[in-house]
Automatic annotation (TrEMBL):
Residues 42-133 form the Methyltransferase type domain. Keywords: Methyltransferase, Transferase. The lineage of its organism: Bacteria, Pseudomonadati, Chlorobiota, Chlorobiia, Chlorobiales. The keyword S-adenosyl-L-methionine does not apply. It comes from the Bacteria. Gene3D superfamilies: Vaccinia Virus protein VP39. One of its GO terms (molecular function) is S-adenosylmethionine-dependent methyltransferase activity. One of its GO terms (biological process) is methylation. This is Generic methyltransferase. It holds the Pfam family Methyltransf_11.
Length: 242
């Protein structure tokens, strides 16, 4: 990811509707499928720490760790979340085998890296029966100016991600698309009304942000009931280490 995109992320991830929705989905899944009150959690590719800060607020007794490639982003994440954050790649996670109860990785495997190696590392550092929470951008045909701006090369289908993870010793607990209510608008924006070289990580008009936030809240309720939605802008999976 370009350095300027990290700073954009840091400036909006605690207020922008998309981040707020994603953070709520992940936190709800953690409560549903793990034990957040005693967990040791790694955010693998934590960016500037917005998710870690959300976890710190939601589950203050959890032991939180982060891993991020860009040193400047690591420092922001440390200050923002109070978590132990290391600079490094998810292809080589510098923790011992079976160290974590939960590994979270949000929109990281879509970048230019060795996905098989990264997933193997997720599996290695998780305890037996540990939980992997994974979010990825959906549908390669939707690759657009936004992906190019943030450096993302690949988008995925739910079935493809599930097969990829199962090859490395994970079994699916839950999987769904999300951002489905706004998906038609997303397609129109990305394919018919592109925004040049800028990404969509930016402050939205307050009215739009409010409406989109309410839509996202409805989606979190649907996913929290364990309902799987057949399409959307993102793929979300909960996997268990065998």
């Amino acid at each position: 990811m370009r350095k300027e995109e990290y700073y954009l992320m840091s400036s909006v991830e605690e207020s922008m509707w998309w981040y707020q929705t994603l953070h709520q989905i992940v936190a709800n899944a953690t409560m549903r499928y793990a034990d957040p009150n005693s967990m040791t959690l790694l955010d693998a590719g934590c960016g500037t720490g917005g998710m870690l800060k959300f976890f710190r607020y939601r589950y203050p007794s959890a032991s939180l760790y982060g891993l991020e490639l860009m040193p400047e982003a690591c420092e922001i994440a440390r200050l923002k979340s109070g978590a132990e954050v290391q600079s490094g790649s998810i292809e080589h996670i510098a923790y011992s085998d079976s160290f974590f109860d939960v590994v979270v990785s949000l929109d990281v495997l879509g970048y230019d890296l060795d996905r098989d190696l990264a997933i193997s590392e997720f599996h290695r550092v998780l305890k037996p029966g540990g939980t992997l929470l994974l979010n990825l951008a959906a549908y390669q045909w939707l690759h657009s100016y936004h992906d190019k701006a943030v450096g993302q090369t690949s988008r995925f289908t739910l079935s493809a991600v599930n097969r990829m993870l199962e090859r490395h010793g994970f079994r699916k607990v839950y999987g769904s698309y999300w951002n489905f209510l706004l998906f038609p608008l997303m397609v129109l924006r990305r394919k018919l009304f592109p925004a040049g070289s800028a990404s969509d990580v930016k402050p939205f008009h307050p009215v739009l942000d409010y409406l989109f936030r309410k839509t996202g809240f409805l989606e979190t309720l649907i996913l929290d009931k364990g309902i799987a939605v057949p399409f959307g802008g993102s793929v979300f999976l909960v996997m268990r280490k065998k």
